[in-house]
């Protein structure tokens, strides 16, 4: 095997498009951008109840134009898919304008959004008109009291409206991201699976993972994918389903007679790093090769005073330094390190 941070290479393909492979042969074509570290919810496994202790001020967050510049340059080294995350991306002002900027980059063929859904329905038509292709909605319970408990401040009806608005607008595939937490929502697994049976939705069960030093994470709350899958199989006849658009690390199954699909994301029990195709950008201009890699490359000075070539070189450096796999099993780390909401989930 090559060294952990061996040189990356360009591979020209048809139409003058470029793909870029890291030192482990993975094609890197996916950029996740956290447009803000702010959120309108306070989910217990993600953010402290009082919110962010030291928010990035207005001057600390990159402008929409700076994000757009990075996307334009990233497209030159093979990025084809962009996902906007947060925090909650829809609390960022003028987010449709950023989507329009990205949609104007000819190489980008997929623009997606991960949201808690609270603000989505009233904005959905404008977002689609701007160029948003599809949406993932994070939802951990269909029970009002539990939804309020896990989010602390959320409104379940607004999240439900988001799901069906996305279906109405045919922002397919519409995905539901459900973190399974033993003792909290594991008795709703079949309810979520039934949702994918009754509607053309793609429900993905995600293993509970440590994403910060918050006290809500406990190892005994982890329910592994194999256990979740066996539970679903007792109710539904499942067959492996072909990859769907933006399938990422999920393994998908189709329930016989169902309209959607059921997916499983297993960061803890069966890491998917060998297929990882992404890099990440934070709201303040740091680039990471992996959610769990503590090293970051700072684009901000080059965005403010540098050339496009400098930024391209930094993007290449990030891909070059992308590690072979995450080290999630060892926990998140020190209290002063970034949390998930500051990096983008």
Verbal overview:
- This protein is an alpha/beta fold.
- The protein has one domain (9-343): TIM Barrel, CATH 3.20.20.
- Helix content is 28%, strand content 19%.
- A 12-stranded mixed sheet has the order 9-10-11-8-7-6-5-4-3-12-13-14. A two-stranded antiparallel sheet has the order 1-2.
- Helix 1 (64-75) runs parallel beside helix 2 (95-103).
- It is globular and about 55 Å long.
- Mean pLDDT is 85; it is low at 1-16.
- [4Fe-4S] cluster 1 binds at residues 39, 43, 46.
- Its EC number is 4.1.99.22.
- This is GTP 3',8-cyclase.
- One of its GO terms (biological process) is Mo-molybdopterin cofactor biosynthetic process.
- [4Fe-4S] cluster 2 binds at residues 273, 276, 290.
Chart the SSEs and their pairings.
Layout: E1 9-12, E2 18-21, E3 30-34, H1 64-75, E4 81-85, H2 95-103, E5 110-115, H3 120-130, E6 134-138, H4 144-151, H5 156-168, E7 174-180, H6 189-198, E8 201-207, H7 225-233, E9 238-240, E10 251-255, E11 261-265, E12 278-281, E13 286-288, E14 297-298, H8 300-305, H9 308-320, H10 340-343
Parallel strand pairs: 3-4, 3-12, 4-5, 5-6, 6-7, 7-8, 8-11
Antiparallel strand pairs: 1-2, 9-10, 10-11, 12-13, 13-14
